[in-house]
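Data availability (excerpt). The following record was deposited with the supplementary files.
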Amino acid sequence: MPETRTAWLQIHFCVFLWGFTAILGRLISIPALSLVLWRMLLVALLLFCVPKVWRGISRLSLRHGAAFAGVGVLVAMHWVTFYLSVKLANASVTATCMALSPIFLCVLEPLITGRRFELNEMFIGLLVLPGIALLVGGTPEDMNVGVLIGVVSALLAALFAACNKRLILRTDSLTATGIEMLSGGLLVLLLAIGFVGMRGNEAQATQLLPSAAQLFALPGQQDLIYLAVLAVICTLLPFALSLRALRHLSAYASSLAVNMEPIYAIMLAILILDEQKELGVQFYAGASIILLVVFLYPLLSRKRSARN
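Predicted structure:
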């Protein structure tokens, strides 16, 4: 099988695995902060068992190490808001909100990396607004907070992606990921300790913050299995495979594949969680518009690159 075809299959398999992250967020019963804490620290623990990561850290300056740690904070905040959105809305809603990340990236990447700003990218961003309006109108009113938090999560995802793009040439990807997972996990731990006494009994607070008894308690057997799947199968495995696949794929092909993640997540949510019963036709119309715009962006980018 040609290397390009193998890489194409690998990247789609990775995106399919990433589609399970929202589903697992729905299935795992512990609050969002605890979920992110376990995910980040498990991944960090596994990565720091790799000698290459330690060698990368030893060659990294203190300034760049601190920069990667800062990105880890953004990753942690993205994941906290992502899983809180899943718990306050559902997996389909959150996955659709995440499709907004490339639109936010159109604005953030030029500001952070110095790349030239393209006016047609702003136009593409405006095209997504009707989709957002339909999406909100097609979800139950008690999910509106989850939708808003999902949009914030998409913004944070775009922000850390732009920062990573600027920094990643400073070291290898495994080292950068190890530092980011450890720093993000430590931040979430501090937040959990600091806010545990402010949890209250409100439904939204209980979905975000662990109780004092939950904070250092081992999750139940089912949650531990799901957390292990999340850390190994849906984080480390696709990360390693995607790095190998991207060596043989164009930027257009890889971005087109990654844009499939919300579609996979929505399909999995329907099959596994039966979420279509919670959402109206308007939601799926809005999701279709957003996904159409997201697919339109790399197509226009490819045409622009060809002209240049």
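Summary of structural features: The first helix runs from residue 3 to 18.
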